[in-house]
């Protein structure tokens, strides 16, 4: 490395150390084919905009608990070598880095992270359901809609759509949890179907006593055949159990009968555990918490009100918040008043305030705005799942701020004597339910504004507090096979690049990986492969082979640099299921086999097998991209001229 180049990398390294909060804030570091990955003790003190302005940085983002800085193939190796030396960190693999990230979390944080990981994949569906529910609620209260046949019909379809999404949410959670913990996602779907089977009594109807529940006796133990509608925690637990059983049986069952026997045993054992252990424990725990909250509001005065509103939204995580409907109905029947409805309503709006508090601290981040704004809108209609699972649980401190704000709102409900004359709607639509004799509409609004403001301020303040908290290493770059490449030949010649794999070819900006889709590492295409064989897209020299065999660099005779990246986050598989057929310095012809990987194994591990094919350095040539619905290694997908 030349002295000038080394000085450049040294400056980059020092800039990065300063911008991430200093050496003391760095917990671990590693790199993949294109990105420097850093685990930090405190992500909130990172200057993201400053990092984007650092020389040679092509992009930066946070994935899970890792700060990922994009440099591109080859360059990241050299930067990492200097950076790792400066921070005096031991050489870490990606699995070591993940372990380090998990070790810095306490048990509660691990649970919260697991919840956020599970729900982030299904968040688009939850958002859609929340907004549809809000729209349906508003339209349903409009006389013009009720009196118009067409508008009434459209609103009915909207209502059915939103109800269906929330109704089958346990299925989606079981699927996502099974996928997150390494099982085959389809088995999570199977368990979700069992939970919601029509052969089981509806859980809500069973709670209200309006349906007969069949009871089986197996080995002397009673088993109630009740469904798990709304059973989010049960779905989460059974998804994890199913994943672990799937992994276990895949290892233990002989290969000759594995395809048939392994899923059979996984499903059977999971179903038995669902009805005998997981379901009753999950349901009993959540039901006990719910009953305790109601008791507090009836016996502890203002303290009980504050505690109820402070923790009520945590019951939403269990999915058993719907049981409050039966309690509310009984309250109305006994007293004609419902004090639980406004308590739940201020708990909801406080979580919305927490979303705004988090947004105010991260307003310049486009992805944060894209998630926070629709989540807050859904809160106004009384739906908090997007806010809870998409933001507050995921980032932890907004959840605390929202709960504290809810407690303030609950105290205000007590002091202002706010009650409701019905149940079923909250927040903005819930104004119509406020009892004029029990504090009235103005008191209802004052309590909600107080809860919203408190949720915002607590979250903002906790965020500031959190922000204030506070021999040479052998380089991993040496392990990456690289090779010097000859001077360009015919640099002005037009070059045709063919698909490196069979499958559907789409523009790179439609890739499932945001870093590649941003074109920060170059323009190109993404391929949804039908198999895992990767071929040379043109004649050239292999310039880089990553140790985990998931990424290969090729230098064309013109000097243009290509990068082929097999799968998304497959570096975490550390070479499992990947085979390479070339090494750095090899001369290849179009169509030569480069690598092969097991796409089914990649999907089973919870990753995407999508292949990224980029022109990392076009040497000043114009690039044209030609997508294709069906491509093979003879299909032109790009042209440099």
Kindly summarize this structure in a few lines.
53% of the residues lie in helices and 16% in strands.
Protein described:
- The protein is α+β, with helices and mostly antiparallel strands and 641 residues long.
- The longest helix is centred in the middle third of the chain and has 45 residues, at 255-299.
- 53% of the residues lie in helices and 16% in strands.
- The chain contains 23 helices and 21 strands.
- Strands 7, 9, 10, 12, 13, 14, 16, 18 and 20 form a nine-stranded antiparallel sheet that branches. The protein has a four-stranded antiparallel sheet with strand order 1-2-4-3.
- A hairpin with a 5-residue loop joins strand 12 (540-545) and strand 13.
Helix content: 40-55%
Radius of gyration: 28 Å
Count of individual beta strands: 21
Task: Using the coordinates above, name the CATH class of the domain at 480-640.
Answer: Mainly Beta
CATH superfamily of the domain at 480-640: Glucose Permease (Domain IIA)
Distance between the termini: 31 Å
- Unreliable spans: 468-486
Oligomeric state as shown: single chain
Shape: globular
Average pLDDT, to the nearest integer?
Answer: 81
Structural class: alpha+beta
Main sheet attributes: strand count, strand direction, barrel closure:
9 strands, antiparallel
The CATH architecture of the domain at 480-640 is Distorted Sandwich
CATH topology of the domain at 480-640: Glucose Permease (Domain IIA)
Enumerate how many helices there are, as a single number: 23
How much strand? 15-25%
Pfam families: PTS_EIIA_1, PTS_EIIB, PTS_EIIC
Transmembrane segments: 114-137, 157-178, 185-206, 226-247, 259-279, 314-333, 339-359, 371-391, 441-464
Domain PTS EIIB type-1: 10-93
Domain PTS EIIA type-1: 513-617
